[in-house]
Design brief:
Blueprint (H helix, E strand, L loop, with lengths): L3 E5 L5 H18 L17 E7 L2 E10 L3 E4 L4 E3 L3 H10 L6 E7 L3 H8 L4 E10 L11 E4 L5 H16 L14 H5 L10 E7 L2 E9 L12 E9 L8 H15 L4 E7 L3 H9 L3 E10 L2
Parallel strand pairs: 4-6, 11-12
Antiparallel strand pairs: 1-2, 2-3, 3-4, 3-5, 6-13, 7-12, 7-13, 8-9, 9-10, 10-11
């Protein structure tokens, strides 16, 4: 068998990379039909620092990363291979000059590719997932769900603070500092932004106890389905968990999205967030991509 050779990526290899990506993406769509139908895969090959692996003159893998001051990021279309093991050689070639934080978004259905990164000391950090919308039945939680208004700013900001606090603790250790963030300033213009078509709050006995936010994620990304909306944020107060508030909010947004012509709804979660990593899969969200992460000592 001819030896594997590693070469810097250039535009001369775009057609070969597109061929590998097209084969990968065909398998992805077979595993998850909600993913968009894309004709021109070459247009999705990213710019960045990359390399290709060839065997006998044939390109069998490519890896391209966007390299910033603090991290190198392999995007959704940044890696594909007919020989997934060759990705490890590409990583070894490229990572010599990378900053110490590395991440890669890899299709959940590409088990051999995920395994290659696992054996490069990457761990599973984020899950990106999708499910169909549906005319879900309302869930009785002893309260009501209504559209949010600017009068709910403090409550919504507090929900974001709750999430940051949860992520900062064990076992997430995100490094986020809730005390350093002005949450109300971050959320102040929410109700003026057309990219957020729906923000609702759950209320019980006059108290706002949960909220959910939908986001019109721009299309054109291989992981974003057609006619899709994103569940961008959802949270409840600590003392009402387990009382049906999260179920009611989920049913509400699924039904609203269905009634407003959205075919699918995406979301994501940190896999080390014990609450969300258990809640969303049970609500029908299926992983499409993993964000894998490594911090080099």
């Amino acid at each position: 068998m001819p030896a594997l050779e590693i070469r810097p990526y250039s535009e001369d290899y775009r057609e070969d990379a597109a061929r590998l990506l097209a084969a990968r993406y065909t398998r992805e769509r077979a595993a998850e039909p909600l993913l968009p139908d894309v004709d021109d895969l070459a247009a999705h090959i990213p710019a960045g620092e990359g390399a290709v692996a060839t065997r006998g003159g044939e390109v069998v893998a490519y890896l391209i990363a966007s390299v910033r001051a603090d991290r190198a990021e392999v995007g959704v279309a940044g890696v594909a291979a007919t020989e997934p093991e060759a990705v490890r050689d590409l990583y070894a070639y490229l990572a010599r000059t990378w900053p110490p934080r590395h991440q890669a978004i890899v299709p959940a259905s590409e088990c051999a590719l995920v395994d290659a990164f696992f054996r490069l000391a990457h761990g599973l950090q984020f899950v990106l997932a999708v499910r169909e919308t549906e005319p879900a039945e309302p869930v009785d939680f002893g309260g009501t769900i209504r559209r949010g208004t600017p009068d709910d700013l403090k409550a919504v900001a507090d929900f974001d603070r709750i999430l940051w606090t949860l992520q900062a603790g064990s076992p997430s250790f995100s490094g986020l500092d809730p005390a350093a963030e002005d949450f109300e300033a971050e959320w102040a213009d929410l109700w003026e932004d057309p990219l957020f078509p729906l923000q609702v709050v759950a209320q019980r006995d006059g108290r706002v106890i949960g909220h959910a936010l939908l986001y019109r994620r721009p299309s054109g990304d291989l992981r974003v389905p057609d006619d899709n909306v994103d569940l961008a944020h959802a949270a409840t107060l600590d003392d009402v968990r387990g009382s049906g508030v999260g179920l009611a909010l989920t049913a509400h947004v699924l039904k609203w999205a269905h009634e407003h012509g959205f075919r699918s709804i995406t979301t994501d979660w940190r896999c080390v967030n014990l609450l969300s990593s258990r809640f969303w899969p049970k609500r029908g969200w299926r992983p499409t991509h993993y964000r894998l992460y490594r911090a080099v000592p």
